[in-house]
Amino acid sequence: NEMNNDIALLKVSSVLNFTHAVKPLKLPSVDQKFEEGWISGWGIYMKPSLLSVTLQCEKMQIINNT
């Protein structure tokens, strides 16, 4: 399935120009705790395996795996 692990982290070779559509993301400190967070992606959104052409997002409860 080509949709497994559809996540990416990019390292750019030059400085990015920030705009209203391109902004830096501040990462939380190690000791910060959250109950909810946002997920996003294009992914499969319906059966039988329809791929979204629009970026989807959803607010989700964060579950502790420990």
From TrEMBL:
Domain of life: Eukaryota
A Pfam family per the record: Trypsin
Peptidase S1 domain sequence ranges: 3-65
InterPro entries tied to this protein: Peptidase_S1_PA (IPR009003), Peptidase_S1_PA_chymotrypsin (IPR043504), Trypsin_dom (IPR001254)
GO biological process: proteolysis
Gene Ontology MF term list: serine-type endopeptidase activity
Protein name: Peptidase S1 domain-containing protein
